[in-house]
Amino acid sequence: MAETAVSFFMDQVAMLLHEEQQLLGGIKREVESIQDEMGQMNEFLRVALEKDESNPILKEWIRQLQEIAYDVEDVLDKYMLRLGRRRVSNGCSGGIKKVFSSVTNLKEKHQIASEIQDIKFRLQNVTTGQQRYREMNAALNHVSSSVPRTEFYGGRGDALFLAEVDVVGIEKPKKQLLEWIHSMDDGFEVISVVGIGGLGKTTLVKKVYDDESTKRHFNHHIWIVASDYKDVKHMLANLIEKLVAEIKEPPPQNLGGMNVDDMREFIYEFLKGKTYIICVDDVWNISTWDAIKFALPKRGNHSCVVVATRFYSIANAACSETEHVYELKPLPTKESRDLFYKRAFPRNQCPHYLKEFAEKILKRCEGLPLAISVISGLLATKENRAEEWEMFERSLGHELIGGGSLEILGKSLFSLSYNDLPYYLKYCYLYLSIFIENGLLEKETIIRLWIGEGFVQPKNGKTTEEVAVDYLNDLFSRSLIHVAKRNVDGRARAFRIHFLLRDYIISKSREHNIVTISNGGEMQWPSRIRRLAIQKNCSFSQETGNLDCLRSLLLLGFGNMELGIVNKVVGRCRLLKVLDLRGAPLETIPNEVFKLYHLKYLSLRNTMVQLIPKSIKYLENLETLDLKNCKVTELPIEILKLHKLRHLIVYRYRAIAVLFDNIQSCTSPCDIGRNFPFLLKLSSIDANESGGIKIVSEVGKLTQLQRLGIAKLRSEDGQELCSSIAKLTNLRSLRIDSIGEDEKLDLDYSVNLQFLRTLILKGCMEKVPKWISSLNGLTTLGLFWSRLKGDPLSSLQDLPNLARLYIHGARVEGLRFKAHGFKKLKELWLRELTCMQWVIVEKGSMASLGEWTTSECKLLGEVPQGMEHLPRLQVVVFANMGDGFVERVVEERRNEGVNWRLAHVAKVRFGNVMDDRNWRFGFAL
User: Fold this and answer.
1) Residues 6+ apart with CB under 8 A from 829
2) pLDDT reported for residue 723
3) Average pLDDT, the chain
4) pLDDT exceeds 90 at position 242
5) Per-position b or e across 397-434, b if 16+ CB within 10 A of its CB
6) 28-51 and 56-90 helices, crossing angle to 10°
7) Residue 148 buriedness (CB in 10 A; 0-12 / 13-18 / 19+)
8) Strand (E) positions, 535-677?
9) Which run of H or E residues covers position 924?
């Protein structure tokens, strides 16, 4: 972990030297000297940790090195804070010379120089310690060969010897894999089984491998565990040995002298014309799969390779042609409970007084068979005393890391995956421990927080946000996080972490002082706190620890905590980069916030804040300002001083969402075009005008924008807005609201937005703008309060990726969904089509539709014709329909029985619309 800290430090210093080299002035050379020295140490550290991560001398040296890395960051940030305050107080005119001319305090200069020299002295001492470790390690290496090495036992081999009666929950996946294996009579097939460690991938694949039907089907049966080999050459050599052993022949005499290509050629010739099944377990990198793939003949008799891996990227790459990827899921609740109680109480039933603790522990296992088996087996050795079980449940995370009773389980499930992460992902991953238990990890929030913390390193050709998405995808591919919500187009929207994984990273984060989490209970505070996440009530006292160097404060649960205490903490923490006050009982922003020169991320989401004061201008390093669901209706002109802003989120959902103005937008200074060169998200601001400058014109200068929300648009500004939008070639999401429901949205001008995924238009249009039909990337389209006349579907039905469609307020007599149209549409909403009397669905239309909602269409007298032609339809909702509609539908169902046009739909529901996000359902058929 120290390697991670030092590598992270190296990246931070490199960015600071690049961005602020003028301000650093005289200390720049000293900092570079420290950077060079630590860089050399880091290279040694990488090698040392691979050999011996438990050596106490190395651990102490690591701790010192990590402290130095933190101290350097502190000194630089304090230095920049002093210069930054002077720069603001002196104004921008005069530039750098004016800043340095004001630094006349010799005591202050001496203090900074003294701190730098102290760090260099400590670094020299650590370097001496490094040399001692080198000498000691060299001496130890002379005798290491005579000392037996303790091998890590992860229990993987146990799965190879489990009887069928010892395995639960694999009947369905086993059946599916066997169907895939036997579905082809000839040719080459690859099947992947993927999932988090401990799900039972090895067990499942071994049961398929040993099945009698598999044995009869193939001439050769080979099982290899990829992680057992130090390199590809050794793996291929062992594969050859196993192949020739099956025909009772010795390995080729020159096997030891073969290179990788020779081995692959031998395997290819050996298997050519034969049937075989090869199971490759525990694959950790794509090169392992490539080494095997190119050694196997693809034509001829039926052959199969089964790959088991934790990595979705490897599973998908292996099955790029067959798409036979089986994502193994956790055990259902019943099977989990049966396995847990069977092992925890092998001879008796669970005592009633242990039931509560048993269920809490079982919940944390979250369906992982290995975790359930090991933990319940350990509990079987404990006395049936409530206090012992309660203490075990409370300290479960600690037991999973070094020295705990579940250390082997922790290594098998999590440590291997965690240690395999590159250093920059380790920081990112441990940081996820800030989120509350069982809470969703919103993708956009994670990305903005990571960037605010400085965890995301820029790459040429990509924004930092795009790099952060790559980080999330990597964690997902490694099965370290799981997708909890997806957008309608399949992109991840929110993630979650397995309970035990969360326990593991909380303990790991605490061990290395990455994040300190306060959840209301007793805790031992570290001497120096860098990041603090408050999840429940927290009282600050002298025992809390040193907060002067705090970089992040996230208040994720206030409870009865006094806001005045929080103000005092913020006042002490002048080096804060991240401040998340979401949900706080705030009506005004504390003045201390505007003294946080380094602040990059400020969230006031879901507070009662109404006013952004002029002092916002002092936060010149701010990149994210999140005011969602606040009461702010106007931004001061001083907001234009925040030239580094990337995300400006300022809108609020009103309580009564069925009204036209259900979203409260914000008035902004008009001269935004040249002041926000890095802005990616702007939502939602009014289309106002001031001093001859129009917002609709200025937004065209924000060429980096990916998400834009414009409200209160007047008809006469439509053409100018379209002209501006045409320049925003990076737009992914666009929302435009007219100033009133009677105001026409005049948007039928040339616009080409090839990357646009979401488009929401609210206002009178009469016809669909022509340019919408060219949006090939569009996945979500909403036409609200539209008053459309004529057929709105003809220009939309050929959009190749449209997955969600809202049509509201159109004045059409009927709608016809033509054959082969809307091929990828999954969700359809028809609302307040007050003139609509009929709907017809032609066979072959909307082949992917899963949900159909019709509300407030009073003249529609019956269920739309042709809905029986929608094979994937799962949910149909009718709400606030006309008199007698429900009775007619119920009668129709009674009369037609299995021939009813909605007989194939799993859920048919009737109810009332409360607002856009709330429904009251009456009953379901």
Assistant:
1) 805, 806, 807, 808, 853, 855
2) 96
3) 84
4) yes
5) bbbbbeebbbebbbbbbbbbbbeebebbbbbbbbbbbb
6) 150
7) exposed
8) 552-555, 578-580, 601-603, 624-626, 647-649, 652-653, 663-664
9) strand 918-924
| Pair 875, 902: CB distance under 8 Å | no
Residue 140's pLDDT band (cuts 50, 70, 90): very low
How far is Cα of residue 317 from the mean position of the Cα atoms in its chain? 21
- Give CA–CA dist 42/132, Å, rounded: 16
Residue 297 has pLDDT above 50, yes or no: yes
Which backbone phi and psi does 809 adopt, to 5 degrees? 75, 10
- Report the C-alpha gap between 863 and 878 in whole angstroms: 9
pLDDT at 509: 86
The C-alpha angle with vertex 205 and arms to 204 and 210, in degrees rounded to 5, equals 100
Residue 164 pLDDT class (50, 70, 90 cuts):
very low
Report whether 6 contacts 82 (CB < 8 A): no
Structure tokens, 87: 């720069």
**Of 822, 760, 816, 761, nearest in space to 791 by CA:** 816
Nearest by Cα to 684 from 665, 671, 661: 665
| Gap between the Cα atoms of 350 and 358, Å rounded | 8
CA-CA distance, 576 to 597, in Å (whole number)? Answer: 8
Span 796-820, average pLDDT:
96
**% of the chain at pLDDT higher than 90:** 50
Q: How far is CA 37 from CA 54, 123, 407, in A?
A: 24, 8, 35
> Is it the case that residue 54 has pLDDT exceeding 70?
no
Residue 87's pLDDT is what?
54
**3-state class (DSSP) for residue 29:** helix
Strands 492-496 and 482-486, by their bridges, are antiparallel
Q: Is 850 exposed, middle or buried (0-12, 13-18, 19+ CB in 10 A)?
A: middle
Give the three-class secondary structure for 35.
helix
Cα–Cα nearest to 788, from 749, 744, 819, 825: 744
CA–CA distance, 381 with 406 (Å, rounded to integer): 13
| Band (574; pLDDT cuts 50, 70, 90) | confident
What the block records as the tokens of 62 is: 């690591």
From the number of C-beta atoms within 10 Å of its C-beta (0-12, 13-18, 19+), residue 160 rates as middle
Mapped onto helix, strand or coil, the DSSP state of residue 533 is strand
Token pair in block for residue 218: 């193939």
Q: For the chain, how far is it from start to end, CA to CA, in angstroms?
A: 57
Beta strands 681-686; 838-841: pairing state? unpaired
Integer CA distances (angstroms), 889 to 829, 897, 901, 912, in order? 19, 12, 10, 16
Condensed to tens digits (0 to 9), the pLDDT of residues 596-645 reads: 999 999 999 999 999 999 999 999 999 999 999 999 999 999 999 999 99
Residue type, 3: E
Please name which of 690, 745, 697 lies closest in space to residue 725, comparing C-alpha atoms: 697
Cβ pair 918, 906 in contact under 8 A: no
In this structure, are residues 173 and 343 in contact, taking their beta carbons and an 8 Å threshold?
A: no
Q: Does the pLDDT value for residue 721 go beyond 90? A: yes
Q: Per-residue pLDDT averaged across 253-274, rounded?
A: 91
Cα dist from 813 to 762, 790, 809, 839, 859, whole Å: 21, 8, 12, 9, 9
Higher pLDDT, 662 or 599: 599
- How many whole angstroms separate alpha carbon 375 and alpha carbon 362? 9
DSSP H/E element including 493? strand 492-496
Q: What are phi and psi of 217, to 5 degrees?
A: -80, -25
Place of tokens 């880091």: 42
| Other Cβ atoms within 10 Å of 679 Cβ, number | 26
What amino acid is encoded at 601 in this protein?
Y
CA 23 to chain centre: 36
